[in-house]
Description:
Chain A is an all-alpha fold.
Amino acid sequence: MMSKSGRLTLSRVFVIIALLLGAIYSGAPVLWMISSSLKSNTEIFAYPPRLFSDSMSLGAYLAVVTNSEKVRFFVNSYLVALLVTIFTLIVGSLAGYSFSRYQFPLKRPLNMTIIGVQAVPPITLLIPYFSLIVTLRLFNTYAALVLTYMVFTLPYAIIMMTGYFNTLPKALDEAVMMDGGSRFVALWRVLIPISVPGLVSTGIYTFMLAWNEFLFALTLTKTMNMRTVPVGIALLMGQHSYEWNEMMAMSVLGCLPVLLLYLFFQRYFIAGMTAGSVKG
Amino acid sequence: MNRAAPSGVDRDEVAESRPMQRVSKKVAPFAYLSPTLLLMAVLSLLPIGMVLSYSLMDNVIMNKNPVFVGINNYIELLTDDVFQQAIGNTLYFTAMSVIFHLILGLSFAMLLNTSLLGATTKAIFRVVYVLPWVFTATIIAILWRLMLNPNGVINYLIISAGFADRPIEWLSSRQLALHAVTFINIWSGYPFYMVSLLAGLQGIPDELYEAGTIDGANGRQLFRFITLPQLRPIIVSLAMLDFIWTMHQFTLIWMTTGGGPIHVTEMLSTFTYKAAFSSYEFALASASAFIILALCLFVALFYVRQQRASDE
């Protein structure tokens, strides 16, 4: 019979080993990506492969950030993702306010339809989008991406903001209106400022979705100067004879915004991501 | 308080005495909703109608005057070998992804919820475990193409360990490609489960475990009779959401195998995309796209029912 503290130490060792194995599974590919981005192209397929080599350099990163075509992918991605986030938060807050504060006919069916849109696969909408966007003369523009992305970011934003506004007492709006302010002032000056945590969660989720989008960006833009990071990397993979180190450097730079958002806003991040699944 | 009473009277007067206010009260909710409604009407309801009508015509977009052909496109699809294969592949890919996402997500969440380690240690591991989540699908695809390359690091490790004597063509082998892309998708998707389930685990009251321990339950029994039932609503939600998302996963497949070799990794999404933008068979592609929509809505219906049940 083992003593209680002996058993505790044993289970602690077991947990640490399990955690380390898990960390290898999740972290090793990422480590390999970083290491490859610092190697020269010949070293990447050196035999035997090595995680560290003597001649590691930031050369691949330098090549990416001094190449105007590649920098443009990043500019496009940041611009589109930021625009989508701003518009989604504005339009989503307005809609959330309406669902939270008013009773009106068709409220429930409208709400259900908006939630239902989340289940519509992007590939289903792709073919009509292609003809709609061409007809609207928006093909190969930022507007094409911002508008189509919002179809997928808005439902989530509306659900989140409705839920957030529901937690704020109606007495707040009434207090503003007693002082002679309109409902709009109540929303803009009082509710929005105290809803910052909800807005941050929603904004992070929206930014991530827009940053990662591939299918619409691939189909609704055409010229290299309109391509976003995921599509840009994909197309370069096809064109160049696999400059793996530059691809890996671009990949590291490409995941940086989401990683930083995660590290700085971990609490909001998790709140936002789990809101949909823990309590719909 | 002193101010509240007179203003309260004021407010009632406003509501009853100004007809303008009452009209605006009816219009206001729709005014706030108008941008949403406009966007949803033009970019989600209209396109769904369009894709349905496309799917009932002979080749639209390419043909200036398309003719109504009824369900011919659907019949053509459902009797097409490649389409049938795509359905099978999609179901395998989706089911395996959901099962392993759940197993890994729950295991990692429970490891991270341990009381045996300090908060800092757990925080560090949590960041490492979340890493696959911060990568977009294109990048995940390229990273794994590099590692699964015949001359890549994974083959090197397997050969050095003596499990194989020559490099394995993971992504271009007819036997292995489907399993390989499924494996990659499992790697990229478990953190979402882990994060949600960890939040769920932290929400289970300690008293439940204390009561269970007093009743003489061992670890396995505590897991089976307390942890699992408490997490059940989250697990069901996650699995259904994941099922819908994985069923139309496109990017990862497109960037690793493109559906090849010889359609062994063809999914409904890649089939649809190729039909539209490689073969320009827009009507057939629309029929395929509509079948995917029907499948997703079918699962979504269960999801809504489950949500409603857990709300009550």
